[in-house]
Amino acid sequence: MRLNLLFSIIVGLVFSFESAWGSRLSVSGNKLIFNGVNFAWKFYGYDFGNGQYAANSKTTFEQWLKEVATYGGNSVRVWLHVEGDNTPSYDAYGYIIAPDRTGTLIPDMKLFLDTAKANNILVIFVLWNGALLRNQNSVNLFWDNSKLQSYIDKALTPMVKALAGHPALGAWEIINEPEGLVYNNKPDANSCFNTVPIANSGAGWDGKWIPMKQIQAFINWQAAAIKVADPGALVTVGTWSQYSQTDAFSDTRNYYSDACLFAAGGKSLGKLDFYQIHTYATFSASAPFKILASNYGLNKPLVIGEFSSSCSGGMTIQQMYNYAYSNRYQGAWGWQYAGGYCSDSRATQDLGMQQLKGKNTTSGLVNFPII
């Protein structure tokens, strides 16, 4: 999804992306709705780079893209480095020296984007996984700015520049569920860095004890680098729940606002273009499938980035996709196409996407050619 990119909508009109969306992603005032799924991975951390795409995932991903398109999906969320075991390429001292060792990462990503374009699907590339991060070289990027800068210079910027302008590139997601890494219940005089408000939320489950300020700086620096390399790119973060994404409730805090990210990292371009919340199990009263998107009081579009009917507290997949569409969320990505814990089958996710297929109404545009 690109600023100033032209889409030919099915009604025959041509719209262009606006540079100021207000509270939503839109095309000349028409809200765009993400309707899709998480591919996440076929082989965890080994889908792209070092020859892995052709060897492991290309055939499967191409089949999945066709299936998503058949059932009306327009977007997929895909994980890239994950924990950093395959990409990027680290040297013996933990500095990044290249996107990958063999030079196939960027071509692999482009091949995937080309197939996505052929199926009218937008791709959200997720760079890192904060829900589980065992590679110490990757953990060190949060603690050592020189190593983080080496990633930006040697891997991130080359990727973004190489893929800039590709019509199927929907967005870059800096990190999935960074709250897994956070030092929870840590007081700070600055409310942006104070994690006491989410003390009872369960954040910090990965036991890495990284202060919120360092996580925010990690996001801020990479978001800014993406915007420098490609000013039209969209950037997001996948938060594990509403607890870290809104100031609307007593037990929540929006740690990823423009002000908080700038306060942590100091880079004015390092902001998010849209927010994203994940939600599972028995939903609390403030969870996405319980309230309107507007109840969060956010000034940016909001996507429900992970969910499943198998861990939904009783909602069907059809109800979940319809709820997201009808209650002013920017879209929904079910978890996940490869299957696994708290995942729905592909057939079930297909039924969910099918609920929104062709819904190009005043509530939002779902299906449109990518040109």
Automatic annotation (TrEMBL):
Organism field: Daphnia magna
PANTHER family: ENDO-BETA-1,4-MANNANASE (PTHR37398), GLYCOSIDE HYDROLASE FAMILY 5 DOMAIN-CONTAINING PROTEIN (PTHR37398:SF3)
InterPro entries, sorted: GH (IPR017853)
Name recorded for this polypeptide: Mannan endo-1,4-beta-mannosidase
Gene3D superfamilies: Glycosidases
Keywords: Signal
Secretion signal span: 1-22
